[in-house]
Design goal:
Length: about 180
């Protein structure tokens, strides 16, 4: 499918729709095996992870609950502010649950480091992290993903849920944004 207006702002396609589909299916199979007999609660961190979440949950073949949480870390720019604030909290209680935090991208790790600390205090049975993308070069917090889809280089990427200034989330692939778009 052509998304001409948005495609013009993309320097190059990093991960195609086909590659995303295959990878998410494999992750789902792995998570289904690992969480067999457990109390899986998938928590999607809004809004970047919604596309990943909706594909991942459908590739999971065991019973799973879902919930959503919204935190702010980046504002509308490309650099982390270091400030993480809860905009929307979970509806579910966490006690006895095997929590799987679903994220779009693990960058500096500050958001997830804060979130997992906060959620751990609510006594879930376990906490793991599934991120679609991992940018290990940019990590400043001491945190790793238990499941990741792709390692990506230190470039600003958009699509498949990821945004720049709330735009490009609906692109079906992951692409590197042209630097002139955010230096304007
Ligand atoms: P962290 O706290 O630095 O790990 O940042 C995590 C959040 O920053 C992600 O959930 C994204 O919303 C955003 N982010 C980091 N890198 C990118 C990127 O390359 N493209 C779009 N959003 C990004
Ligand atoms: Mg974002």
């Amino acid at each position: 499918m052509i998304h001409t207006e948005m495609d013009q702002d993309i320097l190059k396609v990093l991960i195609t729709e086909e590659e995303l589909r295959e990878c998410v299916k494999k992750l789902g199979e792995q998570i289904s095996r690992d969480y067999q007999g457990k109390n899986l609660l998938m928590v999607s961190v809004l809004k970047g992870s919604v596309v990943f979440m909706s594909d991942l949950m459908r590739s999971i073949t065991i019973p799973a609950l879902i919930d959503f949480m919204s935190v702010s870390s980046y504002g509308s720019g490309v650099k982390t502010s270091g400030v993480v604030k809860i905009i929307k909290d979970l509806d579910q209680q966490l006690e006895g649950k095997d929590l799987l935090i679903v994220e779009d991208i693990l960058d500096s790790g500050m958001t997830l480091s804060y979130l997992s600390q906060l959620l751990r205090a609510r006594n879930p049975r376990s906490i793991r992290i599934a991120t679609l993308l991992d940018k290990p070069e940019r990590r400043t917090a001491d945190i790793q993903a238990d499941y990741y889809g792709f390692r990506v280089p230190d470039a600003f990427v958009v699509g498949y849920g990821l945004d720049y200034s709330e735009k490009y989330r609906n692109l079906p692939y992951i692409g590197v944004l042209k630097p002139e778009v955010y230096s304007k």
